Amino acid sequence: MCGRYASARAKQELLETFEVEVDGAAEEELRPDYNVAPTKPVYAVMSRTPKANPDGRAVRQLRVVRWGLVPAWAKDPSIGSKMINARVETVAEKPSFRKAFAERRCLLPADGYFEWAVLDEAKAADTPGKPGKPKKQPYFIQPADGEVMAMAGLYEFWRDRSRADDDPLAWMVTCAVITTSAEDELGRIHDRMPMLIEHDRWADWLDPGTPDAREFLIPAASTKMRAYPVSTAVNSVRNNGPELLEPLQVGEGDGRPLF
């Protein structure tokens, strides 16, 4: 799964990189976040057709959404914290995601993501008679060229029926990251990873009129990614700063080499 990532680039850089036509987050600029966790606000790039657009053309937008998809039929938004990821193997069929996959796909900009490798399968139990938790080492995984990472995502609108129609808080926009199997070196860290969309496929992926978007879901080659161990400080969502992305020095952590 993908449960933490970093998104620290300025909004203006994202607007330029993703060739955004409409800044849907004009009144809201997120601060750099080096420890993005579920339910936090994040940037999402999407293509939508404005109601006032006479030619019916979809326009690429940047919006702020909440990480953790809440289906339109959900009774309350609490379900979103459990729906941060959508597996590529079932995203087109699973009731919670299939409509969003068909009509509401997005790109979630990131600098990279965190994953935890199990170092010791067994650990001495803290309480006699109870199994101990395995020791884990966090890694930061990012594009080897340092460019922004475009994670394949879905977004959905949820209506709070307890609020008036003209209440700006009546609607919530949420998202999920599509995940795929991790191969080769990345698979040694964790068996899942975010699905990444290559630049030349962005337009087709975002286009609501694309009949079958599954053809654009091709896992990134591990040779295009760089992974290295980082401090366990990232384990706590309370910690947030560029130091979370700094590689461990020799002798720290488990001492595993960089990929």
How would you summarize this macromolecular structure in one to three sentences?
The chain has 259 residues and is mainly beta.
Rounded to the nearest angstrom, the distance between the terminal CA atoms is: 20 Å
Radius of gyration: 19 Å
Q: What's the main sheet like? A: 5 strands, antiparallel
Structural class: mainly beta
Stretches where pLDDT falls below 50 for ≥5 residues? none
Q: Count the beta strands.
A: 13
CATH superfamily: SOS response associated peptidase-like
What global shape is seen? globular
CATH A-level architecture: Alpha-Beta Complex
Mean pLDDT: 89
CATH third-level topology: hypothetical protein yedk fold
Strand order of the largest sheet: 3-1-8-9-13
Q: Can you identify the CATH class? A: Alpha Beta
Written as H for each helix and E for each strand, in order along the chain, the element string is EHEEEEEHEEEEEHEHE
Keywords: Covalent protein-DNA linkage, DNA damage, DNA-binding, Hydrolase, Lyase, Protease
Protein name: Abasic site processing protein
EC number: 3.4.-.-
Pfam family, one: SRAP
Defining traits:
mainly beta, hypothetical protein yedk fold, 5-stranded antiparallel beta sheet, 13 strands, lyase, SRAP-like, protease, SRAP
